[in-house]
Amino acid sequence: MDFTRVELGNLSSSNFPIAVFCTASIIILVAVHFFYCNFSSRGKLVNKFGGPAYVPVIGSFIALTNLAETLLDWKEQINFLAGENPTLADAFHRGARIAFMPGVIPKYQSSLIWSLSGYAKEWEEIKIVMKQSISKSFIQKKMKEWKNNANNGNLPKKIKYANILYTKWTDEEEIFYQLISIIGASVDSTESVLCMALLHLAKHPVIQETAYEEAKSVIGTDINVFLSFDDIRRLTYVEMVLKETMRIIPPIAALARNIGQDLDLGDGYTIPKDTSVFINLNMMHHNPKYFPNPDQFIPERFLPENVGKRHPYAYIPFSHGPRNCIGKKYAMMEMKLALAKILFKYEVTTSMRNIENLEYESSPFTFAKDDKWKNQRKILSPGLSASMHPEFLTAFHTHLPNLMEVLEEKCKIGGEFNPDNLFGKFAMGVAFETMFDWDVPLNFFQHDLALQYDMFVNGTYAAFQPAIQPKFQIPLMWRFFGYGAGFQKLVNFMEIYFPKEFLKGKMDEWKSYEKNAALPKRMKYANLLYTKWTKEELVTCQLYTILTGAVDSTDSVLCVALIQLAKFKEVQTNAYLEARRVIGLDYDNTLSIADINKLKYIEMVIKESMRRISPTPVLTRKVGEDLNLG
Ligand code: HEM
User: Fold this and answer.
1) Mutation test of ligand 1: which of 7, 244, 318 has the most ligand atoms closer than 8 Å to its C-beta?
2) Higher-confidence position of 90 and 126
3) Structural domain boundaries of the chain?
4) In what helix (H) or strand (E) does residue 527 lie, and over which residues does it extend?
5) Per-residue pLDDT averaged across 365-386, rounded?
6) Cα dihedral sign, 308-309-313-318
7) Ligand 1 centroid – CA 239 distance (Å)
8) Structure letter (DSSP) for residue 78
9) Looking at the domain that runs over 11-250+285-349, which CATH code has it been given?
10) In whole numbers, what is the pLDDT of the chain averaged over residues?
11) Which of 246, 339, 444, 557 has an alpha carbon within 20 to 30 A of 223's alpha carbon?
12) Looking at the predicted structure, is the pLDDT value of residue 170 above 60?
C-alpha cells in the first residue's frame, strides 16, 4: 500500500466535519454498550449500559463513519457503528494489519516472498471487497459531480478534501489508492488513542471528573448540541488527556527515515548521509529527562508552561517535518469531540488493576533482565556449543529426506515453488531431537503436524505484537484484538508437545543420569534444560523462548537465500559446485563437521542473504551508562 501525500483541505474553514460528528455522536452513544470498561450512565440512565464489553470497535467505527462522510463525500452514509457493511469494516481492519507486515517481518519486503505467502492473496481479497464498496463507477460519479461543480463555478465550500481528491486526479485507480491510504492511516490510530484514553480515565477517576466537568461546561445540557470550533478549542483539558495518552502509548510506535544528507547533531556528532534511522517514539515518550515518572498518567504535562520547558521534539506522536501526519488536526478535532461527548454521557470504570506498568507480564517468555538473564544464559549457552554438533548432524540427516520429498513433490506438481515457512518445519523437527531429547523423529511436513506448526507460527505472531504496537503491552487490549486467542494456539502447541508430565519425566530421567554419574555426553542442551531448573514451568519458559527464537529466523534466511540464488544464476552455480565438491557423488553421504567447515562459499551466500534481508528488523537496547562513541 502506497501512502502518497495529498494536500488536505483547510478543514478549519468549514463546519461540516462537526455537523457529521454531531450526527455520528448519537450513533456512538448507542453503540457504547460494546465497551469493555463498565459504563454507568450519568443522569437517569443508571446502569443501562453496565457490564463488560468491547471498546476497540468504538474508535475505529467513529473514525470510519466520520471519515467516509467528511472527507470522501460518501453520501451513502454507511453507519459502521451500527454494524452496516461489516465486510468493508473488516476489510479495513485486516488491510491495516497486513499492510504493515513488511515493516515487521523484513522477508515480506521481498515482493516474491510476499506474493508466495498467503498475505498477497489476502491483500487481493481485501482489495476486491474495498473495490466493491468504493467502486470505479462510484469514483467516476464523484469525479463527474465535482468537476461539474468546479466548471459551473458552484463548488461547495464544504468537503475541501473531496473537492481536491475528485478534481485533481484523472485516474480512478489513483483516487482509489488515495482513499484507502487515508482510511488506512486514520482508522487504527484514532481508535487506539480513544480507546486508551478511556481506559486511563477509567483508572483515574479524578482526572476523569476534571475532563467531564470541562466537557459539561462546553456542551451545556444537551448532548446533541452542535459544537463550534471555538467550543472545541475550549476543550483544553480533554486535549491534554489525549496528548498524555499518545505519550504513554503512541499509536505509531516508531518512525523510520533514510538520512538524505549529512545531519549535524551538534556537539561534534554527525549522522552521515544515507544512514537509516529508526526513531522509537515509544521510548522517546518515556524518557524521564523530559517526562519525570514516565509511566504515570499526568495530563498536566501538556500545560503550555510545561510544554515550553521541553525540547520541541521530545514528543512527536504525529511525527514531524514534511512527511508528518497529514491528518493531525483532523484527528485531534475528532478525538476531542468524541471524548468530550462520551464523557458527558458516561462515567467509565474498570476493574483492571495495573495499567501503568506496561511490562508485558503475562508473557511466558524468558524476557528476564539483568542478573537473572545473565544467569540463564550462562547456564544454557554451553548446550549450543560445538559439542552438540555430532547429534545435530544425525538429526539433520534423519530429517533431510522429509524436506527433499516436499521440494521434489512441489517441483513435480510444477506449481510455483513456495519456500516460505518450509524450512521452519524442517528446523523444528531437528530442534526437537537435538535440543529436547525427543525420542521419535517428528516430521512437521506431515498434514497433522503441519497444522500444529501453523498453530505455532500464528501464536508466535500474536506473542510479538506488544513489541510492534505498544497498546498491546496491556494484556487486556491484546486479548480484545484477538491476539489472546492467537497466542492460545502457541500455548496449545506447547501443551501437545511438552505437557507437564512429559517435562517431569524428562527432568527425573536427566537428574537420575546426573546422580548415577552416567550423564550421556550427547544432548548437552537437553541435559542443562532438564537438570538446572527445578520447576516444570521454568523449563517451559525456556522452551518457548528457544523455539520462537530458532524456527522463524532460520526459515526466513534459507527462504531469502534460495530466492537470491534463483535470481543470481552464477552465484547458484558457484554454490552448487562447492556443494558437489564437499558432498561428493553420493547425495546420501553424511557430512562431518570438517565437511561443513569447507562450505565457505555457501556460508557467504547465507551471510549475504542475512545482510540483504535481515530476519530481525531492529534491535533495541537501553544504554545503562554513558557510552563514549569516541
Ligand atoms: C491519533 C491519530 C493519528 C496519529 C497518532 C497519526 C500519526 C501518524 C504518523 C506518526 C505518521 C507517519 C509520519 C512519518 O512517517 O513521519 C502518519 C502519517 C499519515 N497520517 Fe496520520 N495519524 C493519526 C490520524 C490520522 C488521520 C485521522 C488521518 C486522515 C484524516 C491521517 C492520515 C495520515 C496520512 C495520509 C499519512 C501519510 C502522510 C505522508 O506520507 O505524507 N492520520 N500519521
Assistant:
1) 318
2) 126
3) 11-250+285-349, 254-282, 370-551
4) helix 524-531
5) 74
6) negative
7) 18
8) -
9) 1.10.630.10
10) 78
11) 246
12) yes
